[in-house]
Specification:
Elements (H helix, E strand, L loop, with lengths): L1 E2 L20 E2 H8 L2 E3 L5 E2 L1 E2 L9 E4 L6 H6 L4 E4 L1 H4 L5 E4 L3 H11 L9 E2 L4 E2 L4 E2 L4 E2 L4 E2 L4 E2 L4 E2 L4 E4 L2 E2 L4 E2 L4 E4 L1 E3 L4 E2 L4 E4 L4 E4 L2 E4 L6 E3 L4 E2 L4 E3 L6 E3 L4 E2 L4 E2 L4 E2 L4 E2 L4 E2 L4 E2 L4 E2 L4 E2 L4 E2 L3 E3 L4 E2 L7 E3 L8 H12 L1 H10 L3 H4 L4
Parallel strand pairs: 5-6, 6-7, 7-8, 9-12, 10-13, 11-14, 12-15, 13-16, 14-17, 15-18, 16-19, 18-21, 19-22, 20-25, 21-26, 22-27, 25-28, 26-29, 27-30, 28-31, 29-32, 30-33, 31-34, 32-35, 33-36, 34-37, 35-38, 36-39, 38-40
Antiparallel strand pairs: 1-10, 2-4, 3-8, 23-24
Length: 363
């Protein structure tokens, strides 16, 4: 590899990225997001905030009834809420069935643009066979390997390492220090946060007498459109077939995805979850933080798994599942733990204990 001299313009890192604060009228927000307006449509909105902390030029939301008390005293210019709360709003309102989702879309209107110009930073190292779109941005100290592709509008942030035969889809963003080891393909509008490693070897080893033999990992990683991958999350490449995330999968920070795992579209997984190799997760699933899923099992669509649960067998029906014990006082937990150790013996004793009918011939 050598420092790139592509036709794309170099990025002048000495110039600060432009900052363009956004300002919307309440009517504009209602029209763009598709909400019903109650109140002054000309009111100016300059940002978003919580009900408790909003300023008079910000918009807040009420999705959880527990925060209804904050609605009474809010200083917000307007509030996003459901129709059944509209009558008690002391300020202007935007009305919809799902205030939280609407608020997320509104917040995106005020999110600062990435502020990067197309081009390749002078410190980046690009293989001769790599292809970088003219509208893409490659930041400082990046390294891009042979036959890899950075598509239109993609952003490769500082310090990213892209190995051979990788594809970064159009308008995708690698925030910083992302590693794509080899044969990783990102779809469109994928966002990958700092420290994520995609395409490292899966944990494949075979025992031969008294030592281990490494099993070559020959597959890749395929990430669908509109996925998000959290900081320090790792997704291993497949042993033979690919590890696959379908469309709109959302991964939190510090998640481990083993080789040949397949995760269905629109599934969301919270932090510190570990999924062992060849597990198959369905569509529209929700997996709570620090859950563990063993390998080679299937989980149906629309399954919710509670935090800290251990899934040891396939789940074939939609629904909510949990394992483990909830938080309790330490003294109570110790007593229960001691009793749990004797549970098998107690059950066996009851199974072999004669009934009253067996011991009393008159019954």
């Amino acid at each position: 590899m050598k420092p790139s001299r592509c036709n794309s313009p170099s990025v002048d890192a000495s110039k600060p990225a432009p900052v363009n604060p956004r300002q919307w009228s309440l009517r504009q927000i209602a029209e763009v997001i598709g909400l019903r307006l109650q109140g002054d449509g000309d009111r100016s909105i300059r940002g978003v905030a919580t009900l408790a902390n909003a300023e008079p030029d910000q918009i807040a939301f009420l999705a959880n009834p527990r925060y209804r008390r904050d609605l009474e005293t809010t200083r917000a210019a307007a509030v996003v809420l459901r129709a059944d709360h509209a009558a008690i709003s002391p300020v202007d309102a935007l009305i919809c069935d799902n205030p939280y989702a609407a608020f997320a879309r509104i917040a995106a209107l005020f999110e600062p643009a990435p502020g990067v110009a197309p081009g390749i930073h002078r410190s980046a190292i690009i293989a001769d066979e790599a292809r970088i779109a003219a509208s893409a941005h490659v930041g400082p100290l990046c390294c891009i390997g042979a036959r890899s592709v950075v598509s239109d509008g993609a952003i490769v942030g500082p310090g990213c390492v892209i190995g051979e035969d990788c594809v970064i889809g159009s308008d995708s963003v690698l925030v910083a220090r992302v590693t794509m080891v080899k044969n990783v393909r990102l779809g469109r509008r994928v966002r990958v946060h700092p420290g994520a490693v995609l395409g490292a070897d899966g944990f494949g080893i075979a025992k031969d007498d008294d030592h281990w033999i490494k099993v070559p990992q020959l597959g890749g990683v395929v990430i669908g459109d509109d996925c998000e991958i959290g900081a320090n999350t790792t997704i291993d490449r497949g042993a033979l077939d690919d590890t696959v995330l379908e469309t709109d999968v959302r991964l939190d920070n510090q998640i481990q995805i083993g080789h040949n795992v397949r995760i269905g579209a629109h599934t969301a997984i919270a932090g510190c979850v570990a999924i062992a190799g060849s597990a198959r997760i369905g569509k529209h699933c929700l997996i709570g933080g620090a859950a563990g899923i063993v390998g080679h099992i299937d989980i149906a669509d629309r399954v919710t798994i509670a935090a800290m649960s251990l899934v040891t067998h396939s789940l074939h029906e939609a629904g909510e599942y949990a394992s483990g014990t909830p938080l309790q006082a330490s003294a109570q937990w110790r007593r229960n733990a001691v009793r749990f150790k004797h549970l098998d013996a107690v059950l066996r004793e009851r199974q072999h204990k004669p009934t009253d009918q067996e011991t009393d011939p008159d019954k």
